[in-house]
Amino acid sequence: MKNRGRFGDFGGFYVPEVLIPVLEELEAAFYRYYEDPRFVAALGLLLRDYAGRPSPLYHAKRLSEHVGFQVYLKREDCLHGGAHKVNNTLGQGLLARYMGKTKLIAETGAGQHGLGTAMVGALLGMETKIFMGVTDIERQSVNVHKMRLHGAQVIGVEGGTGTLKDAINDALRYWTGHVTDTFYLFGSACGPHPYPTIVRHFQSCIGAEARRQCLEQCGRLPDTVVACVGGGSNAIGMFSGFLADEGVKLVGVEAGGRSLAQGRHAATLVAGRVGVLHGAKAYLLQDEEGQVHETESVSAGLDYPAVGPEHCYLKDTGRAQYVAAGDEAVLDAFEALAKLEGILPALESSHALAYVMGLKGRLDGDAIVVVNLSGRGDKDVGIVEKCRRDNLGQA
Amino acid sequence: MKSYREVFGQLRREGRAALIPFFVIGDPDFETSLGVVKAAVDAGADVLELGIAFSDPIADGPTIQKAGIRAMRAGMTVARALEFIGRVKAYKDVPIGLLMYYNLVYQYGVERFCVNAHAAGVNSILVADLSIDDADEVAGPARKAGLDTVFMVTPNTAEQRMTRIAAATTGFVYTVSVLGVTGSRDELSGQVEGLVGRLKRLTDVPVCVGFGISRPEHAVAVARAGADGVIIGSKVVSMIEQNLGAPGAMKEAITGFLGDIRVALGG
Hints:
The complex is a heterodimer. Chain A has 15 helices and 14 strands. Chain A has helices at 20-33, 37-51, 61-67, 85-98, 112-124, 134-139, 141-149, 164-177, 195-218, 233-240, 268-271, 309-317, 327-341, 347-358, 381-394; strands at residues 6-7, 10-14, 57-59, 70-75, 103-108, 127-133, 153-157, 182-184, 224-228, 249-257, 273-277, 279-284, 320-326, 368-373. In chain A, helix 4 (85-98) packs parallel to helix 5. Chain B is an alpha/beta fold. In chain B, helix 3 (62-73) crosses helix 11, helix 4 runs parallel beside helix 6 and helix 11 (234-242) packs antiparallel against helix 12. The chains are: A alpha/beta, B alpha/beta. The interface between A and B is large, with 34 and 38 residues.
């Protein structure tokens, strides 16, 4: 490897030997093409004409009135496919094409990354397989249908709790046996080097645009930038635009689930301990011995026991702070945005909104908070309805 | 404690490759597993490769994944696994290679783990998700504690890297015969012969071959290619799975199979 892939002591590439040559090949290709004018132009066109970038930065006036400060939503939910995931799937898909790979595989939790990969597989004419936990297949069936319509094969993963962690396990295993012609299109800013760097790069358009748009609309930088964190791709894409602006406070919101008791949440940075999973040293939800814990969250996309290594580094250096939002507050935020602004946010993004709504009345009226609305919530309507019905049943 | 050097040296003089079965410690439970491993030693295992179950074994196929789940459900822990190794070693002094995932070693504390593993009777440690690039995190403490280091070579390893891997290895090179995870395969990989040949030209460290070996003729082909040892994992682990609840039949199936391999290897 050219680079150790470290963020402080976090990150690295803790993988079986068989994957080392493949990661080396990927790293070399990324550094060869990511600033190559032909590649940059091709990706720029796709991001504009296919995905719909730039995405708007929207001043949510009724929400702002409700909380008592100025809230701006970075509308990644407006992109084709309904989430920020397409930024990365277009980038990596194009990279795969430049590398001469003919097949794509990907893991998915909520199905948004799987959908983004399936779309790009169709667009580039590549055979696509999506690994998805059986629990997630059940709770995100709409996305499963969409992936299949785009011609992808969705492979159900039975292991563990049938969620994102298990999907990554099986995708890595499959890749081990198909390294020659298959490109693993990793969805989050975690996993072994060079993925955290690649995903951050392809998602950095979020932060770069948001910074520029905020300056244009407000004449100054925001006071606070908020994003939800599962593996951490939308958050790192957003934060990357503001890392150098020391006055801008960065807040990552993790899935607090039912409670912060073991196994009932996915708040890795808030409640985890450093360990090694899926090729990277990072905060991890685990038991005393190092067996990885099961996680729980109302949002499949955040239901993951590890987190991107750069977020670990930002936590330890104090540049960003990380908090957890519980399922109840998240559902409230989902409904509030739907009623106040006519926007259905993804349950993942609703974590960031829940944190912002929790600040109600605690910031100055002219304070500017930019929230990454990483995806839209159409996929979650059934889940929200079910949660509310179950709670009514208990009451 | 018998060393790899003694065992592989003796086998080279006899002109025979080592028979190395792999088991997940405590599969399906501590006592049954101990009985099976002892039976494997009686059936002629020259070296044992033992794994400690981990929640996310990304290098393993379904057979060994299920074995790990059985072991963990029956209460296997790292401390119990080291106790298990002590019990095996007390039964017979066979070299034991430990195969693990890094997080278990990391959480235990690398130095403390190496010292306790050596005290329990472990000869070598192979961390499945730690390549030579990060070997320093374990290799130093391992050697200081008296453990040999084992690293993997795969069919896509470049020659220059192979040299570095061989140099970092003091026990034996674990040669993976196929691109893929662990698991029985009907056909032996066509890449084995070339891979073993290349390694043999590069190093004097013993070369053992694993992944996908499930029949006596596979073992013979691997030995003919010049390997010093034949590692058989998923096939014997599947015999545990097929005989759950019948420890007698389980041991019989495994000793019968290992006996056939041992005969095929010439001894």
